[in-house]
């Protein structure tokens, strides 16, 4: 088992190891004895892992299961969880356990951050994407209307337990989506990770490397006011792709296309070279990810007007300077329209 220690407003460990899903109860009770727990999961993940996770506790914990999918990442689902906690008389010293992918982690973290003005929670990511990205760093939230993560909080977990064997149950498309975020880390600051992906690799090592990168970036800018925004490589374009396509692309697929758009924008602005872009494209293609889309660029630009990275009439983009180094680039919406035409 590997341990990555995170130091920020709350200090916590990320544990990574095969088979940990059957040891959640043991690990959690060792660190947090005397607490009551409620496992939150969607019905897909619950069918695979809820009984196994619950069985790892000497006393069966409470659980709440919601319907899967981005459409259920809503305040209504949070309310459903909060009402159950109140009904079961959960107190401030009790804890939630997010068992699932990114949506489950975001919803559970948000519920934990507001129940009784904040209770602790644990992340047990069951997707590669959640393990390398969303389970670490404390961003929680839900969508509002068509706006992604419009309501939420910064609320760090107290522990992350990551079992790469659990990711093996993922459909290939889900696993690839997680790989888009892995390639993102390589493109931001770790070209060696990119090289590693070209050869045989151990998923635990990859998860460990990615969360260590994220840990370092989050530690220096927990609330996303500066350098943390670098983690959004491909995401400003990606969120627009998700929205305009009506979520027909997964988050990772949209980020893959968005990352290539960011590289092409970097070329257009004279920051990087076509060789950098091809490196990103070939890695993403290796994992079966899309690298372009025919969506209407004007509709994408409209979607980007609501992006959280926007302030005043300007938006901050993450633009590569080469494969393995990126910078924040502020531009106007008008100039962005110009940049996007022909990308
Ligand atoms: Mg992401």
Low-pLDDT runs: none
Can you say what the CATH homologous superfamily of the largest domain is?
Dehydroquinate synthase-like - alpha domain
Strand order of the largest sheet: 1-2-9-6-5-3-4
- Class per helix and strand makeup: alpha/beta
Beta percentage is: 15-25%
- The proportion of residues forming helix, as a percent range, comes to 40-55%
Number of strands: 12
Order of helices and strands: EEHEHEHEHEHEEEHHHHHHHHEEEH
Q: What is the top-level CATH class of the largest domain? A: Mainly Alpha
Number of domains: 2
For the terminal residues, how far apart are their CA atoms?
43 Å
Main sheet specs: 7 strands, mixed
Mean pLDDT comes to: 95
CATH topology of the largest domain: Dehydroquinate synthase-like, alpha domain
Figure out the total of helices.
Answer: 14
Distinct compounds present: magnesium ion
Annotated CATH architecture of the largest domain: Up-down Bundle
Overall 3D geometry?
globular
Question: Would you kindly provide a written description of the structure presented here, covering whatever features stand out?
Answer:
There is one protein chain. This protein has 343 residues and is α/β, with parallel strands linked by helices. The protein folds into 2 domains: 168 residues, Rossmann fold (3-Layer(aba) Sandwich); 169 residues, Dehydroquinate synthase-like - alpha domain (Dehydroquinate synthase-like, alpha domain), CATH 1.20.1090.10. It is 46% helix and 20% strand. The chain is built from 14 helices and 12 strands. The strands form 3 sheets. A 7-stranded mixed sheet has the order 1-2-9-6-5-3-4, sandwiched between helices. β11 and β12 form a beta hairpin. α7 runs parallel beside α11, α10 packs across α11 and α11 runs antiparallel to α12. The longest helix is centred in the middle third of the chain and has 18 residues. The mean pLDDT is 95. It binds magnesium ion. The site of magnesium ion has 5 residues, from α11.
